[in-house]
Amino acid sequence: MKNSIIIIVLVFISAFAKVKAQTTHSLDTIYANDTKNVALFFPEPIRQGITGSDNFVFTYNREKEQYFGLLQAKPGKESNLLVVNRNGSVFSYIVRYKKQLSKLNYFIPLSSSIGNEKPIVTDSVLVESSEELVDNSTYYYQKFCSYLLNRKQRIGRIKKRSEGIILTVKNIVFDKDELYFVIEIENNSSLDYDLNFLNLSIETRQKGKRKSLQRLYQEPIYKYNLPSKIKENKTARFVYVLPKFSLSDDRRAILELNEKDGERNIEMKLSHRYINNPN
Prior knowledge:
five-stranded mixed beta sheet, five-stranded antiparallel beta sheet, disordered N terminus, 279 residues
């Protein structure tokens, strides 16, 4: 009985801490005026946008969902802006009038979301389990990877080809504690390409009289949209998520693309400069 009381108390303390953390969440401030449009670009199309006062106007395409909205303001008291994306992600900001604006464009990452409009509801208050944490991480990886695939940002021209197969690293992005590798495989040949594996390793060049190379395979935390086959004249884009790491100038990353039951293999070397300076 005593142990049961202790567990109940701990559960309510945990629930209270979560509520307090949500209510004390500090909101970022966005400034606008009545002579310029301030553009807000979201990771998913906007489904709804609401301002708390008439002296602020947030316009977006209500007929065809788009990724951006425009904010304007007239002189008056500060207010708030609430935006809901198509996937249910909720974003909230304080909005203020400012005669002179230093920033006209805001590119808002998924990590700025304060929550989702469809929270998980249970019959009773439960302590968050490790399984729930895994599910939340997977959900975040899915949404952020989807956002990166739709983004046109590039890190450079990292490309290698072999017999009509082109392997390209389109982007490397750092977010929270992970590196996201946006990868593209283009099949310009007349045969389908069956993917055996695509591995990323770290290669160390040993110094001394007997120079040697040592490779250490890096296991991705998550793979998004990875294909098993790329048909002829088709292109596949996908994302590898790895724990963040950096490289010294005597080390480099290696991407190994291997064809199943074939010999159209590609080995690509990634300089430490790309790894250490992600977007």
